[in-house]
Amino acid sequence: MKIALFSDIHANLPALEACLKHIDEQKPDAIYCLGDLVGYNIWPNEVINEIRRRGIATIAGNYDQGIGLMSDDCGCAYKEEHEKDMGKISIGYTNSIVKPDERKYLRTLPAHIKVEFQLNEDKLNLLLVHGSPRKINEYLFEDRDEKSMIRIMEAADADIMCFGHTHKPYHRIFPTDQIEDTHFRHAINIGSVGKPKDGNPQGGYVLLTINADSSITNKNAVQVDFMRFNYDVEKAAKAIEDSPLPNEYADMLRNGF
Amino acid sequence: MEFPNDYKYSKEHTWLKLLNNQEALVGITEFAQSELGEIVYVDLPSVSKQFKKDEVFGSIEALKTASDLFMPVSGEVIEINTALKENATLVNTESYTGGWLIKIKLLDIVETESVMDAIAYQALVK
Questions:
Q1: Which residues, given as ranges, of chain A have pLDDT below 70?
Q2: Cα angle at A51 between A46 and A57, to 5 degrees?
Q3: Which of B35, B38, B61, B68 to mutate to test the interface with A (most CBs of A within 10 A)?
Q4: Which residues of chain B have pLDDT under 70?
Q5: Would you call A138 and B66 a contact, using CB atoms and an 8 Å cutoff?
Q6: Nearest residue to B75 (alpha-carbon basis) of B108, B48, B100, B106
Q7: In the structure, how many helices (H) and strands (E) does chain B have?
């Protein structure tokens, strides 16, 4: 089966619409959203309602959690003072425009989705999280130590772990030796629909294909395709500039960082 | 930011607190925890393992980054701070007290003389 996974839309409606159109063309069998629907742009309600209208199974991101709780902290772990100041404006603005029913939806989103396959002799667990299984706002960048990644996935019993939050897509395979055979674990960062940070302003998502021979001992049995799509970046950037949000967020969209 | 006078400091931002002339506690400095941000997990060695000065004895994982931990002096691990398993953020909130990492038996007491004092360490991080 073919599974489409997308996340980190961040209130960017033009990007979400283009993403869903692109996903529809791939004819996936299932669609999941890994959170962070809101923040940094002007369409949080519209993004929430489009995802609800389509009945897409969705988990909470750190920004969704912050807005769901009407908090002034998005859990973004900003380091620089300037980032913190801009972040305060974004969460304050988002809190001011998200409507009650939409906030209630964010407040009640689940943290994780676990999908268990039993295709061959053993189980194959697909775990969907926003940041990491242990923290909604942990950043698992591509350079994270292998030992740490394996420990995180083992603790969560995840054979295939899909996550977002860093807005930088990658796929890493970790072989771990078991008594009889090598066990392969896949860590897949699915990138960002509406706020990519890998230098490419196109939106991104992942198509994950589970084959009949997919198993924990078959390294190449899981197919991961990183999909990129064009959308009206200028419309999304202009919307930021015409709002109380800091203009720097507009340039980030134009440049993909 | 605090730099307690009765602690010793390594250039890799671990501190050493001598308990007597045989045992000491090891942790990371307030400066180190503030650079790392919120700590999520601490990977500590098992008891009775021995490490040389400057050797990696574990690692610490924060929200955005992970970092190795270096021994300020040579020592044998005689206890680890099990409270960190449930509450790793103690390293952030009580970096010099409740957030200690390991208790060691000193393997070479003379080495403790070459570890920086509070004034030298403060000058290093400023």
A1: none
A2: 155
A3: B61
A4: none
A5: no
A6: B106
A7: 4, 9
